[in-house]
């Protein structure tokens, strides 16, 4: 028998406190003791004794009404009553934790699984109705109204097991749990809608349904990915609440399900513009495409922007363009929202989450199935990535294309992934539109209070299969049969309002007829315009980057260099690093400006010119190769100092953050940020260049194709360490060939610089060019400190970026063999021991690989009148690198073209340093034409 006397009484009292908060948190023998009802245990907890003794005259429960002045005589504390209180506490806890298992969440009527812990008669002791009436609600820490367990239990069941249910007890933060319990149980955000609100809700549901039905009749067999079955997903309430909280913008990301309806009714896009996209599938006059223009995209991928009027004022609503990689847009939306929330006129980039609300609509199959979701959730609380909370809505069809939930996830709910990030989850039956509105109200109140993400799992169905060409009965015959017989949510709600006398049947029918008429008129007006010449030829604007002034006066660079080396008076830089940085005072005058110094001067000069900069990546603050040191750390206090945030004449923000170890979400985030902040230079750096293939979807679908598909471009810059230095196949190649293969119509720029001065001018050109394009830079590793790759002050103060650099020491008349290479390989060739014996060989550098500098290349080649051979030398295998993409550009009239490099390989490089050195030496000798 457990001893509760003497020295153990304090310990027992602490355990009882834990038990009242969470019965499962105490050892089994103590839990059994507390539930046994022994009165000697009560003596260890005087507070509970007093509450029990004042059954009718004690402290009221938080939501209860004040007690009468004349209270009934207190009931004596007995073992039976004490046991009943313990059982009641367990019952309350069970409803909070497992009430969702008994909730009526499925519109199609499937039976919820339930849980034995929710049944009073299965507890020990059994909570009979008589015993329930004796348990005071005041000791149960409840917020539902009522004075006894008997009074509050029905309300508790309705709260946690109705058409809306909650999962909140997994949250580690006590304050958040208590706030949610009070908000949920008090019904603060779930009050009945006023008559006019219900009428407007019916009008909204009528617009949604009539829109889908018209499109299906008018464009039979065309895909529209109907919203029907999830009609309440149109987010009017969220937008109005965001505006009420001070937001200027709502940024939405979603896949195709219901997208057209959101475009029409959430963003207010005209019906004619949506119908035009359908007509484009059957008449060329509706859409114009040219050889010099974009490809466009299917209608349910397109983004848009609209302005909504709300009681609190106007608000901009943006729907981000999204490919069929369903969750790829998630971090893009977060980045766009973060950019909207950031004041870039301040040095640090002042962040205000109230300015913009991000909303992400997920599929129930993709939320647990796509790793991008977890990566995006992981960004939510990080300093450089937080957006003050995102409203996540799971558009839960209860099936993924043709895959049942049991085949698509290992969890009970599709939302379970969010539990690992302490995110509250609200499940709601999509056939109860009023419950859906209350879920959004609660979610945004929580977001406003805690700046935290919230998930609303909207459980519905698909009325027409995956798309309107699909036959759902092939794979889900039982569900399809249920859906066919199931009344739409609009019809159910209309019938309720008619029955209650809120509207008449004629008024309800007129709402649908009005929308149908409006759609028909828009369609007819659109058809009348066919045959007219297009307003635009659809061409993608030309952009070379030429003509941008990138040089900075020498005196200004000297002053900037000194300023960037200053730290606060009591700040102690690491002694070893301090001496390295102080060398920059010497190199600015004598030469030897390395990569890190050139970059800092480029950034500093841009900040003074009013260009905001955001630099993120893996270990970017210091630099993977310990070359940047943009953020300094005090060796005594650990305090940090960022010189680029403390430039005297700085008029724009400098943001720099170490990113989590992720590429997919992080690069997507920076793309979204750069779209919403076109005036800023946004850079993302990989720890090693080959890691960028973890973000290949963002590159393929957004960075290189966004201009052609959506006429959306950015000046996003990718810094990808690249170069063969014997570190194995995983740390050699940034997969240059993939970027060049994707390069067309001047969609991106690709560079592989060989000097720090070239990098300086490239960064400034990228920031200052008005017609920006994404830039991919093959940044170096070994060259970061190589003296030959450093530059002088004159290199930075004069000239500009040179896409091709001729051999500065060449005898143009004598040269018969012209070798072109790029990046690091140049120094391997010119530094080889046999370079001096190859007197007829010149070594030129191709610094910009795309767009290929046709004129500059031709000018260099033509400067060699006796040329007999042009050689392209690269470190990469023949099926990789630049060779296969630029070969046709390298061909010169009547001069043979030769390839030198590694042979075709499945893996980029050798795994052993000795093998690397042997192969590198062979390549250099072959380039020079020596044995």
Shape: globular
Helix content: 25-40%
Describe the largest sheet.
8 strands, mixed
Q: How far is the N terminus from the C terminus? A: 91 Å
**Range of strand content:** 5-15%
- Count of DSSP-assigned helices: 34
Radius of gyration: 34 Å
Order of strands side by side in the largest beta sheet? Answer: 1-9-10-8-7-2-4-3
**DSSP, total strands:** 24
Return the structural class: alpha/beta
Residue windows where pLDDT falls under 50 for at least 5 positions: 1-10, 38-69, 285-290
User: What does the average pLDDT come to?
Assistant: 89
Structural description of this entry:
The structure is a single chain. The protein is an alpha/beta fold and 931 residues long. It has 34 helices and 24 strands. It has an eight-stranded mixed sheet. Strands 14-11-15-16-18-17-22 form a seven-stranded mixed sheet, with helices on both faces. A five-stranded mixed sheet has the order 19-21-20-23-24, with helices on both faces. α5 packs parallel to α7 (149-160) and α24 packs parallel to α29. The longest helix is centred in the N-terminal third of the chain and has 24 residues, at 195-218. The chain is globular. Mean pLDDT is 89; it is low at 1-10, 38-69 and 285-290.
Give the tags:
single chain; 8-stranded mixed β-sheet; 7-stranded mixed β-sheet; 34 helices; about 10% strand; globular; disordered N terminus
What is the fold's blueprint, element by element?
Elements (H helix, E strand, L loop, with lengths): L8 H13 L6 H9 L2 H4 L3 H8 L25 H20 L30 H6 L14 H12 L3 E4 L6 H12 L9 H24 L17 H9 L4 E6 L4 H7 L5 H9 L24 E7 L2 E7 L9 H13 E2 L6 E2 L4 E8 L2 H4 L1 H9 L11 E6 L8 H4 L16 E5 L3 H18 L3 E6 L17 H9 L3 H11 L5 H23 L26 H10 L11 H8 L1 H7 L4 H14 L4 E5 L14 E2 L6 E2 L12 E5 L5 H13 L4 E5 L10 H8 L2 H5 L6 E5 L14 H6 L7 E3 L4 H13 L6 E5 L13 H5 L6 E2 L11 E5 L3 H6 L10 E6 L1 E3 L3 H9 L6 E9 L5 H8 L6 E6 L10 H16 L3
Helix pairs in contact: 5-7, 9-19, 9-20, 10-17, 12-20, 13-25, 21-23, 21-24, 24-29, 25-26
């Amino acid at each position: 028998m457990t001893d509760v006397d003497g020295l153990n009484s304090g310990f027992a009292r602490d355990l009882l406190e834990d038990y009242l908060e969470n019965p499962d948190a105490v050892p089994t023998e103590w839990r059994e003791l507390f539930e046994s009802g022994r009165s000697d245990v009560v003596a260890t907890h005087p507070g509970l004794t007093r509450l029990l003794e004042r059954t009718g005259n004690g402290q009221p429960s938080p939501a209860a009404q004040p007690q009468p002045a004349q209270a009934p005589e207190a009931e004596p504390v007995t073992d039976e009553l004490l046991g009943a209180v313990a059982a009641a506490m367990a019952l309350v806890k069970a409803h909070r934790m497992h009430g969702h298992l008994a909730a009526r969440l499925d519109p199609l009527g499937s039976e919820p699984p339930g849980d034995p812990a929710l049944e009073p008669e299965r507890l020990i002791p059994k909570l009979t109705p008589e015993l329930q009436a004796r348990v005071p609600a005041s000791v149960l820490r409840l917020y539902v109204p009522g004075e006894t367990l008997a009074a509050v239990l029905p309300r508790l069941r309705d709260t946690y097991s109705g058409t809306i249910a909650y999962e909140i007890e997994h949250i580690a933060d006590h304050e958040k749990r208590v706030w949610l319990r009070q908000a949920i149980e008090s019904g603060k955000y779930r009050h009945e809608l006023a008559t006019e609100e219900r009428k407007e809700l019916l009008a909204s549901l009528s617009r949604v349904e009539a829109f889908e039905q018209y499109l299906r009749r008018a464009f039979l067999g065309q895909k529209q990915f109907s919203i029907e079955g999830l009609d309440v997903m149109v987010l009017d309430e969220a937008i109005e609440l965001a505006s009420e909280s001070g937001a200027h913008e709502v940024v939405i990301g979603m896949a195709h399900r219901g997208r057209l309806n959101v475009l029409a009714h959430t963003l207010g896009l005209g019906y004619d513009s949506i119908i035009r996209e359908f007509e484009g599938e059957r008449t060329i006059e509706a859409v114009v495409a040219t050889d010099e223009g974009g490809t466009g995209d299917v209608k349910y991928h397109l983004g848009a922007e609209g302005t909504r009027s709300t009681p609190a004022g106007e608000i901009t609503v943006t729907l981000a363009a999204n490919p069929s990689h369903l969750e790829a847009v998630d971090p893009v939306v977060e980045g766009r929202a973060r950019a909207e929330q950031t004041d870039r006129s301040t040095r640090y980039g002042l962040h205000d989450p109230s300015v913009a609300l991000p909303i992400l609509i997920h599929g129930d199959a993709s939320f647990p199935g796509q790793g991008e979701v977890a990566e995006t959730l992981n960004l939510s609380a990080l300093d450089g990535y937080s957006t003050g909370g995102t409203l996540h809505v799971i558009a839960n069809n209860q099936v993924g294309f043709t895959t049942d939930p049991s085949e698509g996830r290992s969890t009970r709910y599709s939302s379970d992934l969010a539990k690992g990030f302490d995110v509250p989850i609200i499940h709601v039956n999509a056939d109860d539109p009023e419950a859906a509105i209350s879920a959004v109200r609660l979610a945004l109140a929580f977001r406003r209070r805690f700046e935290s993400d919230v998930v609303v799992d909207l459980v519905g169905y698909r009325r027409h299969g995956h798309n309107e060409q699909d036959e759902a009965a092939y794979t889900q015959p039982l569900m399809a049969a249920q859906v066919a017989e199931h009344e739409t949510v609009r019809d159910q709600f209309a019938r309720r309002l008619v029955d209650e006398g809120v509207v008449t049947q004629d008024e309800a029918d007129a709402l649908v007829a009005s929308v149908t008429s409006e759609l028909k008129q828009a369609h007819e007006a659109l058809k009348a315009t066919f045959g007219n010449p297009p307003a635009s030829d659809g061409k993608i604007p030309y952009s070379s980057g030429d003509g941008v002034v990138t040089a900075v006066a020498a005196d200004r660079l000297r002053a900037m260099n000194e300023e960037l080396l200053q730290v606060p008076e009591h700040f102690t830089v690491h002694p070893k690093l301090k001496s390295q940085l102080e060398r920059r005072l010497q190199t600015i005058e004598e030469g030897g400006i390395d990569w890190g110094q050139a970059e800092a001067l480029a950034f500093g000069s841009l900040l003074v010119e009013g260009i905001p900069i955001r630099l993120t990546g893996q270990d970017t603050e210091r630099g993977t190769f310990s070359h940047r040191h943009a953020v300094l750390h005090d060796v005594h206090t650990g305090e940090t100092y960022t010189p680029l945030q403390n430039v005297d004449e700085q008029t724009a923000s400098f943001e720099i953050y170490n990113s989590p170890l992720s590429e997919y979400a992080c690069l997507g985030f920076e793309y979204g940020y750069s779209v919403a902040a076109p005036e800023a230079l946004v850079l993302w750096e990989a720890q090693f260049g080959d890691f960028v293939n973890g973000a290949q979807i963002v590159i393929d679908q957004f960075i290189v194709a966004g201009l052609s598909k959506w006429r959306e471009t950015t000046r996003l810059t990718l810094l990808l360490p690249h170069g063969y230095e014997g570190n194995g196949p995983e740390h050699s190649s940034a997969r240059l060939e993939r970027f060049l293969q994707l390069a067309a119509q001047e969609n991106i720029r690709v560079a592989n610089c060989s000097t720090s001065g070239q990098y300086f001018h490239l960064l400034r050109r990228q920031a200052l060019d008005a017609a920006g394009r994404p830039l991919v830079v093959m940044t170096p590793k070994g060259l970061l400190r190589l003296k030959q790759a450093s530059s002088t002050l004159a290199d930075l103060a004069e000239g500009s970026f040179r896409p091709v650099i001729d051999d500065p020491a060449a005898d143009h008349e004598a040269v018969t063999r012209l070798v072109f290479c790029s990046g690091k390989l140049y120094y391997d060739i010119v530094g080889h021991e046999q370079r001096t014996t190859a007197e007829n060989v010149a070594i030129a550098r191709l610094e910009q690989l795309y767009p290929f500098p046709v004129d500059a290349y031709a000018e260099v080649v033509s400067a060699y009148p006796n040329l007999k051979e042009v050689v392209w030398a690269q470190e990469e295998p023949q099926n990789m690198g630049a060779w296969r993409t630029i070969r046709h550009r390298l061909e010169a009239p009547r001069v043979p073209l030769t390839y030198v490099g590694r042979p075709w390989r499945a893996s980029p490089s050798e795994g052993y340093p000795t093998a690397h050195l042997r192969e590198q030496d062979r390549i250099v000798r072959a380039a020079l034409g020596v044995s």
